[in-house]
Amino acid sequence: MTLRTIPIRQSGNRPNLFMGGDRELVMFSGLLAFTLIFSAFEFKATLFGIVLWAFALYALRLMAKNDPLLRPVYLRHRKYNTYYPARSTPFYINTKTQEAQY
Predict the structure, then answer these.
(1) Residue partners of 94: CB distance under 8 A and separation at least 6
(2) Low-confidence residues of the chain, pLDDT below 70?
(3) CA distances for 79 relative to 10, 22, 74, angstroms
(4) pLDDT, tens digit, 9 for 90 and up, residues 30-57
């Protein structure tokens, strides 16, 4: 009796991108540019907002081209502690703050 194999389709395994960049970052940069343009109502602010959003979109596309999952990986990296002390024996006595971590 052989094992049944199920193919993994590429469409179900794609990163969540929008306009070539990470969805949340692209939409947030568009929101910032939109807010800048419509809060100032000046030609200079409109021009600066469009240039800012175009540059942000270009940078986010480059980031997504290198690693489409860069944002979640960075956010997970920020949650790690800078130092994890070694606990080499099962007979180590944890302090109260260490017990609260587990």
Answers:
(1) 102
(2) 87-89
(3) 30, 20, 9
(4) 999 999 999 998 999 999 999 999 999 9
